């Protein structure tokens, strides 16, 4: 420990020893830096390890205690959050060599968050353990490449064991338990997510928005969402969230590509005369057509957005037909339809009460389609589901059925201020992602217990050599870290807690809030299998690969001109007088 910070020096095996790290401040919390001794050989591993240790211990421990972090932003109010990936993204070190370590941890957190939507804190804690032990073994002469192979061999075995331990989520109560834990124990969030899934189905569309009251609310809106965003960012009309939003809009749906200006002029004229925004959904919009739309959007504020149609082949045709039925419009280019886009009439447009388009997806809300036609379309899909034997087809048909029948659930997050709402939105989003992961792959014991139950499976592995065996042993010890850390933060000896859990019945674990051993399933202390699996895979992949590094290459930092900085400072000072 150095000045109260968890930085411990690692000994170099080489004859030439690096300068002592005694008295060096935390590389995250202060501006003091470790000496730039060498930039190749063992030193990069040493510096990166120190940064990873400080980064994780100083940040992740707070999350495990349920504490929030306040992040300064270049504009607006500071951001208050408990979300691990949000904090990870906000950390940037001035020293390039140490910043590499921080960026690697950010990659672990980002990858886990993108795939599973949660588990970033677990992933970073695991990454720290694997990297630290890997470097220690390498410093004693072990082969880093073989250690990595042993690590990945062990990880594969753990993943297979997790699949065996996983239990499907079957009840609304289990869904609420998963959501509650991911929301840092907020039962209100857990219950509202469970209610949303109950109303729109487990595969239904659920979005999170800012509420207008002090309380959280759930609203069910009929709508359709697909994974295609705007073709050009110039269509953005809402800076917050980088999205395009329209109310009471017309929808032009085409199976074919639109390239000619002449083909869309009639549609633009009708929409303009009726004072309606226009959403164009087509195979593609390019060439003169796209240039004209963008130019008119920028020059005269034309209310229009172009979106690529989702899917491919027959799946695309079916989805476009679903959209047409839901919105009350026609699909141009469809087989059997003789009219062209140039001949469009007002009744050929689909109509929606609201549309939201981001760079990644499009959401059509409050479609004006005929209820009888929608029910007829739903029945057609149900009949196809009954006869199809392809799992892929069943999945696609269920997705279409959910969009047509169940609508969209909107979780409106309330609060007394923007800061409070944003912090709660982070937790709601995490909880929603974790719940989806649980529905997808099932659940396992929480509190790090699932990883502990996988340790015996590693005893059956047969490594090719001693260095691979070292990699397997590293994972054995690493699997104990989450449970030990939780126990330590509760004020008890982590190793003793882990030993008692290992000797207890399969469903027994440690409840850190109550300070006692309980049946984890009955208490609702559970984790989504996908979250645990993804956290371990990402942590092991990045940390073990890092252990094979022998050198660090960075860009040469640009020198700042003192005169320019001085002038800026004076200007800023003058501005502060007003």
Automatic annotation (TrEMBL):
Any GO MF annotation of the entry: ATP binding
Subcellular locations according to the entry: Mitochondrion matrix
Family: Belongs to the chaperonin (HSP60) family.
Protein name (record): 60 kDa heat shock protein, mitochondrial
InterPro entries hit by this protein: Chaperonin_Cpn60_CS, Cpn60/GroEL, Cpn60/GroEL/TCP-1, GroEL-like_apical_dom_sf, GROEL-like_equatorial_sf, TCP-1-like_intermed_sf
Pfam families linked to this entry: Cpn60_TCP1
Coiled coil: 371-398
UniProt record, GO biological process: protein refolding
EC number: 5.6.1.7
Family matches, as PROSITE patterns: CHAPERONINS_CPN60 (PS00296)
């Amino acid at each position: 420990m150095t000045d109260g910070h968890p930085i411990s020096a690692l000994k170099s095996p080489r004859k030439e020893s690096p300068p002592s790290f005694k008295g060096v401040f935390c590389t995250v919390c202060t501006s003091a830096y470790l000496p730039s001794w060498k930039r190749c050989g063992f030193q990069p591993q040493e510096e990166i390890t120190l940064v990873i240790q400080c980064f994780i211990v100083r940040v992740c421990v707070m999350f495990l205690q349920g504490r929030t972090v306040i992040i300064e932003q270049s504009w607006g109010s500071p951001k208050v959050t408990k979300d691990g990936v949000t904090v990870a993204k906000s950390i940037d070190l001035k020293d390039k060599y140490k910043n590499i370590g921080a960026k690697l941890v950010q990659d672990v957190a980002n990858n886990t968050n993108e795939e599973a939507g949660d588990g970033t804190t677990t992933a970073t804690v695991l990454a720290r353990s694997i990297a630290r032990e890997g470097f220690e073994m390498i410093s004693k002469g072990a082969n880093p490449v073989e250690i990595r192979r042993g690590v990945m061999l062990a990880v594969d075995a753990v993943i297979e064991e997790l699949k065996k331990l996983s239990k499907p989520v079957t009840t609304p109560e289990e869904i609420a338990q998963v959501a509650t834990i991911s929301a840092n124990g907020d039962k209100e969030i857990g219950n509202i997510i469970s209610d949303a899934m109950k109303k729109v189905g487990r595969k239904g569309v659920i979005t999170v928005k800012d509420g207008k009251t002090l309380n959280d609310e759930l609203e069910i809106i009929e709508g359709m969402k697909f994974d295609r965003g705007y073709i050009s960012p110039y269509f953005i009309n809402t800076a917050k969230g980088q999205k395009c939003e329209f109310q009471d809009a017309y929808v032009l749906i085409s199976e074919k590509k639109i390239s000619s200006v002449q083909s869309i002029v009639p549609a633009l004229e009708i929409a303009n005369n009726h004072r309606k925004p226009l959403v164009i959904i087509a195979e593609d919009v390019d060439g003169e057509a796209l240039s004209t739309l963008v130019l008119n959007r920028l020059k005269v504020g034309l209310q229009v957005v172009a979106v690529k149609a989702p899917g491919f082949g027959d799946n695309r045709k079916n989805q476009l037909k679903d959209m047409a039925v839901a919105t009350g419009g026609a699909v141009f280019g469809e087989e059997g339809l003789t009219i062209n886009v140039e001949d469009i009439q007002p009744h050929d447009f689909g109509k929606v009460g609201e549309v939201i388009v981001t760079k990644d997806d499009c959401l059509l809300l409050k479609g004006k389609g005929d209820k009888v036609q929608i029910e007829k379309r739903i029945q057609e899909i149900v009949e196809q589901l009954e006869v199809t034997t392809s799992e892929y087809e069943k999945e696609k048909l269920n997705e279409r059925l959910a969009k047509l029948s169940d609508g969209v659930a909107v979780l409106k997050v309330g609060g007394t201020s923007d800061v409070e709402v944003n912090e709660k939105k982070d937790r709601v989003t995490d909880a929603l992602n974790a719940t989806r992961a649980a529905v997808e792959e099932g659940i396992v014991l929480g509190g790090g217990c699932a990883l502990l139950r996988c340790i015996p499976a590693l005893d059956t592995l047969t490594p090719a050599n001693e260095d691979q065996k070292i990699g397997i042993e590293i994972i054995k010890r690493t699997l104990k870290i989450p449970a030990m850390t939780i126990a330590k933060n509760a004020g008890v000896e982590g190793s003793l807690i882990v030993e008692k859990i290992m000797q207890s019945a399969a469903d027994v674990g440690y409840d850190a809030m109550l300070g006692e051993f309980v049946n984890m399933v009955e208490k609702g202390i559970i984790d989504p299998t996908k979250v645990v699996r993804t956290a371990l895979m990402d942590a092991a992949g990045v940390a073990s690969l890092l252990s094979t590094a022998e050198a660090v290459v960075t860009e040469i930092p640009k020198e700042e001109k003192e005169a320019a900085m001085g002038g800026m400072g004076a200007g800023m000072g003058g501005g502060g007088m007003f």
